[in-house]
Each structure stands twice: as structure tokens, then as C-alpha cells.
């Protein structure tokens, strides 16, 4: 199998081949670029391997351009990287590796191309294309990676137990590639993952979450999470999600399996949005159900308060898993806390006050909250699902009407604390917050309009009830004008 015509479409491959020939070494394109080329998938990351110094090859390639090409050298790793337009090119010498039981950091030595390919994670990534003049474009495929691409399976080049014990991160990569490509994991390879899942303990949380986010970002993440669960990998880093699995029954009353419900919600969200953090909100929305599960003989199983407890659990889970602790965490936390609120609004008698409060609490995330709520409808009864979706359509319309009329999304109280202190001569104190809170509540309840004039009039009324007077005539005049 020869890819010369494909390589000729980009001059970089000929340049690398000529630079390697000038240095008297052999060079190859390897790994993911080769896999994606065969699959017809776009790729802007290219890995080059040479039987010699990868750094020297990168330096020679950089010199072959008429213009300056940014070059980064990593001597400790024996690698170098070139940035060329929107391409990222990495160069490394062929090597062989051996591992110690307590670490995933290998002992690296120079090796042949064959040794370099056999150390790679999966057969579909253990292919190379020659850049040498005598066989330019020829595929090197010692482990039948092409056959495994056709069979749509993930399989290790060597005995899988050795591969995963040496570098446990490869177990997560197996699941990630299966999820991204919609491939199966070959039976012996999967059994080895399950057998060595506890080796994941030596992998840093940062490396783990990088792979997990790639699974979450796939078109149908439930497939990847089912593999993580079945292999016991999920148990090693996300026990709270594992706890969702299972169904309890008392007196013929059962609750749904919240693990598989969560995966359905996640897939539903993926049909509406590519937002990674909305997808994480789907993962987290019922995370506290095991902790809040109770059986009531009259009503069956309940999960009262799981939305609030789930919101409280979110920062700890994000911190442990090395997910971001910034606005993205707060966004997920907010959606977890609010995810039941729109469900209460599907009734015909919903009040404008309830709609205003939801708009105020959700702010600019109201549309994403409604997507999560729609995704949360997972009944097997299609008519029931359709009825709920139609109800949410009505809620959407009501929300738009209230927002257009009252403009309460993200609103700030029209009277500031500084203004209250200045008019009444008050120091910073609890009473300032009480006045602002009463004004806010009056707006949300629809008692006054959301505008400065109405808010200032109410401010004077509240102050009078509390026995507080303005400090000068000017303020009296302002009050009378109101």
C-alpha cells in the first residue's frame, strides 16, 4: 500500500525526506496521522520518527525553509517540534522502552523502527509511511493495523497485559479511541484492561481527565462510559458516578437505574450542544441521588434535595478530578442546583413571579438550563416524552414574554448599597442588605416595575417603616418627587 500521491499534496513530507537523506538517516511518518490518513479523517498533527536524532532532523527541516519556522527543542525527551501554519510537527528518534512496576515513566533507549512501532499503544497507531527515496510513500504495517481498522477493533501490538501494566494510561486511551471511532475493543485487550484497572492509580488526575474530556466530547459519550464502567476503570476515579448504578425494590416499587438514566441525558444533551460543560452538567445533575435516596411506603422512592446536595458536591468532585475550579465549575454547579426548577413550571397556572425568579437565578444560562431539562426527559413512553417537551415549549414562550416585559435576567437592583448609605447616612451594615433584598423581592414578585423610580420610592417606604430618615432636605425633596 503506497501513499505517495497523498504525501505529494503537502511539501513538508518531501522536505523531511530530503533532510533525513542529507543527514544519512531513515525517516517515517508514524502514528495517528497515518491512521487518520487511511480513515480519511482530517489531522493537523504529524509525528515523524527517524532512526537517529529527531532533534537534528527537526533542525535540518527548519533550515530548509526560506522563512523562519518556529522550532522548540526538548532535549530531556529527545524531541523537537515545528509550527508550520496550522500544522504541528513533532520529531523523535526511533526508540524502545522498558518500564518499572511503580512508575509509568519508561527507561528509553535508541531503537529500530520495528522496536519503535511495537512499543506503541494499539495496532491502528503502530503504522508508518516511509519518506525515504527508495520507497517513498510505502506503508509499514507489522501488526496489521489496516486490517484492524477494517474490522473496527482496538487491539494492542504486543500482549495486552504487558502493554497496560507498563503504561496504564493506555487503558483509558483504548476506551477513548473506541468512543471516538465507534470501534470495539478486542476481547483479550478488554479483559486485560479489566484485570489491570487498579494500575490506573499511578496515573495523575490531570492525565486521566484529559482522556475523559475527550470521551465526553464524542458524539455519543454513553458508549465510552459504559466501557469505563464495565472495565472498572470508572471505579478508580469517579466512584460517585458508579454509585448511581443499580435498582432497589421494596414492595414491588422500584426506582430507575440512575447511571443509565444519566448516560441517556448526556447523549440527549450531545444532540443539542457541543458545550463540554453543559455535558458535564448532564453527568453531574443526579450525582447526589444515592446520598438522598429514601423509601416512603406511601409514595415509593424519593430523592428529596438531590439538586442542592449535588450542587454542594460539585466543587469537591471537580477539585479531585482536576477539572477547572473557575466559572466553568460554577456554571455546572448552577445548572445542577436549578435542573428541577423548570419542571415545576410546566403547569398551566405557573405565575409570572416563578418565571421571573427562574430568569433571575439562571441569568444568561437559562437556555442551557432548558436544554438540560429537555434532555432529562428519558421515559420509554414516547407520548409522555412528547407531552413534556410540548410543555417545555410553552414554558419557553412564557419565559420570553416575561423577560421582554420585566427584563430581570441578570438584573442588578436599581438602587445600590452606596446610594442607600449616602441618602440615609448609614454605615455599611446588615440593614443595607435588608433594604436591597426587599427591593429585589418586590421586583421579582411583580409588586413594582424593574426601574429606578419605582425602586427609589419603595426604598423610602421601607426606610420609613424601619424608622430611618434621610439626612438632608435634598433627599426629602427627592422622596416627595418620587
Automatic annotation (TrEMBL):
What keywords tag this UniProt record?
A: ATP-binding, Magnesium, Metal-binding, Nucleotide-binding, Nucleotidyltransferase, RNA repair, RNA-binding, Transferase, tRNA processing
**Can you say what this protein is called?**
HD domain-containing protein
Which InterPro entries does the entry mention?
A: HD/PDEase_dom, HD_domain, NT_sf, PolA_pol_head_dom, PolyA_RNA-bd, tRNA_CCA-adding_enzyme
Source lineage: Bacteria, Pseudomonadati, Bacteroidota, Cytophagia, Cytophagales
The record ties this protein, via PANTHER family, to: MULTIFUNCTIONAL CCA PROTEIN
- Is NADP included in the keywords of this UniProt record? no
What species is this protein from? Algoriphagus aestuariicola
Family classification: Belongs to the tRNA nucleotidyltransferase/poly(A) polymerase family.
- Pinpoint the HD/PDEase domain residues: 254-378
Q: Which cofactor does it need?
A: Mg(2+)
Q: Which Pfam families does the entry mention?
A: HD, PolyA_pol, PolyA_pol_RNAbd
The residue stretches assigned to a coiled coil in this entry are: none
Has keyword Transferase?
yes
Amino acid at each position: 500500500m503506497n501513499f505517495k500521491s497523498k504525501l505529494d499534496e503537502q511539501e513538508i513530507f518531501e522536505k523531511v525526506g530530503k533532510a533525513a537523506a542529507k543527514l544519512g538517516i531513515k525517516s517515517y511518518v508514524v502514528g495517528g496521522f497515518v491512521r487518520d490518513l487511511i480513515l480519511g479523517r482530517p489531522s493537523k498533527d504529524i509525528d515523524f520518527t527517524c532512526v537517529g536524532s529527531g532533534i537534528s532532523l527537526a533542525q535540518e527541516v527548519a533550515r530548509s525553509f526560506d522563512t523562519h519556522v518556529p522550532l522548540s527543542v526538548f532535549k530531556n525527551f529527545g524531541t523537537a517540534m515545528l509550527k508550520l501554519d496550522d500544522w504541528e510537527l513533532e520529531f523523535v528518534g526511533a526508540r524502545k522502552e522498558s518500564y518499572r512496576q511503580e512508575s509509568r515513566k519508561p527507561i528509553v533507549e535508541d531503537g529500530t523502527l520495528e522496536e519503535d512501532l511495537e512499543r506503541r499503544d494499539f495496532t491502528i497507531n503502530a503504522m508508518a509511511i516511509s519518506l525515504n527515496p527508495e520507497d517513498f510513500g510505502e506503508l509499514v504495517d507489522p501488526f496489521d493495523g489496516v486490517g484492524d481498522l477494517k474490522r473496527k477493533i482496538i487491539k494492542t501490538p504486543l500482549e495486552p497485559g504487558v502493554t497496560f501494566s507498563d503504561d496504564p494510561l493506555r487503558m483509558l486511551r483504548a476506551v477513548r479511541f473506541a468512543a471516538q471511532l465507534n470501534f470495539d475493543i478486542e476481547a483479550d485487550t478488554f479483559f486485560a484492561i479489566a484485570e489491570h484497572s487498579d494500575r490506573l492509580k499511578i496515573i495523575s488526575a490531570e492525565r486521566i481527565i484529559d482522556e475523559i474530556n475527550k470521551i465526553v466530547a464524542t458524539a455519543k459519550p454513553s458508549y465510552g462510559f459504559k466501557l469505563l464502567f464495565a472495565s472498572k476503570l470508572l471505579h478508580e476515579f469517579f466512584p460517585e458516578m458508579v454509585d448511581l448504578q443499580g435498582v432497589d425494590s421494596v414492595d414491588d416499587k422500584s426506582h430507575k437505574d440512575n447511571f443509565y438514566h444519566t448516560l441517556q441525558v448526556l447523549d440527549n444533551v450531545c444532540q443539542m450542544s457541543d458545550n463540554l460543560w453543559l455535558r458535564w452538567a448532564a453527568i453531574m445533575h443526579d450525582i447526589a441521588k444515592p446520598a438522598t435516596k429514601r423509601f416512603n411506603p406511601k409514595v415509593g422512592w424519593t430523592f428529596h434535595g438531590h439538586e442542592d446536595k449535588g450542587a454542594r458536591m460539585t466543587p469537591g468532585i471537580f477539585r479531585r478530578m482536576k477539572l477547572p475550579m473557575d466559572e466553568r465549575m460554577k456554571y455546572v454547579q448552577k445548572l445542577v442546583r436549578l435542573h428541577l426548577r423548570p419542571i415545576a413550571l410546566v403547569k398551566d397556572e405557573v405565575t409570572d413571579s416563578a418565571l421571573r425568579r427562574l430568569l433571575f437565578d439562571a441569568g444568561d444560562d437559562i437556555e442551557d438550563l432548558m436544554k438540560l431539562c429537555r434532555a432529562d426527559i428519558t421515559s420509554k413512553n414516547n407520548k409522555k416524552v412528547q407531552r413534556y417537551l410540548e410543555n417545555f415549549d410553552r414554558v419557553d414562550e412564557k419565559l420570553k414574554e416575561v423577560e421582554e416585559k420585566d427584563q430581570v435576567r441578570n438584573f442588578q437592583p436599581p438602587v445600590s448599597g452606596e446610594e442607600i448609605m449616602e441618602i440615609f447616612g448609614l454605615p455599611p451594615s446588615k440593614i443595607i442588605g435588608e433594604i436591597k433584598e426587599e427591593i429585589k423581592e418586590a421586583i421579582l414578585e411583580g409588586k413594582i416595575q424593574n426601574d429606578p423610580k419605582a425602586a427609589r420610592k419603595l426604598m423610602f417606604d421601607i426606610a420609613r417603616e424601619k424608622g430611618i430618615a434621610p439626612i438632608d432636605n435634598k433627599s426629602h425633596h427627592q422622596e416627595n418627587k418620587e
